[in-house]
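Re: weekly structure request thread

Next one in the queue (343 aa):
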Amino acid sequence: MFTRHPDNPIVRPGLFPWRRAVTFNPGVLWDDGRFWLYERAAGGFDPFQCVIGLLGSADGVTFKHVVPDPVLTPEMAGSPHGSVQDPRLAVLDGRYWMTFAFRPYTWSCFPTGVGVPRSEVRSYPGFDPATTPNQTRSGLAVSDDRVHWAFHSWITPETIDDRDVILFPEKIGGRYAVLRRPVGYVGTDTGHGAENPGIMVSFSDDLRAWTAPELVAAPRFPWEDDRIGGSTPPIRCDRGWLVLYHGVQREDRTINRVCYRLGAMILDAADPRKVLARCPDFLMEPQPYYEKHGSFIPNVIFPTGAVVHDGVLRLYYGVCDTAIALATAPLDSLVDHVWRTGR
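Done, posted below.
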């Protein structure tokens, strides 16, 4: 279904100290005749502090940095010791919007080469990891020129560990909408009576106050037995909303080995709480070397950016939390596949 680009990975770490170790999980826009890619990047693993950088491209393959410094930093979200992660982009009301995950105090991570890295939280001034929660919450940033960003608001409160928060690219029934994924640990609840986190939705009239999350989809198939979460911003199609999501399978708990794969579903155009079609099988799984082995975590494809250009969906995804790759698929064929196999 998807064709990987022969030059993958198309964006790699290096060049600047703040992206020396890894670059991955990008948000992407097609705007003003140009591709704009917002990378999550880190200069090292101890601590694993992430920032957001900006690259541009005329062809969507060869990217160069627009500015030499990050365009979104932890300080802009309120904590110099924090980490900003996994940007997703949307254009609404004539402005540019970025949802991002935020941890106020950065973890230090120690990759094992076979599974999820071992992590620990350092002490910071005014912060004791033994007594103070350090959950991931999600926020919203805004820009008028794609380059200069400002913190706008929090979408999730401090009391909810919540990531994969993604803004729909248009209002639904006069309201803004986001996909989200509260997790079932650190004193939180998935909200759907199951142990494993799933995809939920919330609505807002003003991008500041959001309704309580409502269930969209929970893990169902063996390849997503650990959890699922939204990947790229929803794409409006003739069947409704095409939602690409990631499913995580726990392959070996003794070494914390997982596998991230790509799934797809179609939501009702007027009510995204309704799933109209959902593929029982994944669309992509780690296959080439750069998707199975990397600096941080093996066996990971994690799409966060999607652009439809000339009828082709361009999927930008992180590989092994190390670099960025590109895969393409005809949009109509993809939608037909999901509709045919998922009903």
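Residues 331-341 form the longest helix (11 residues). The chain is about 5% helix and 45% strand.
Next request, please.
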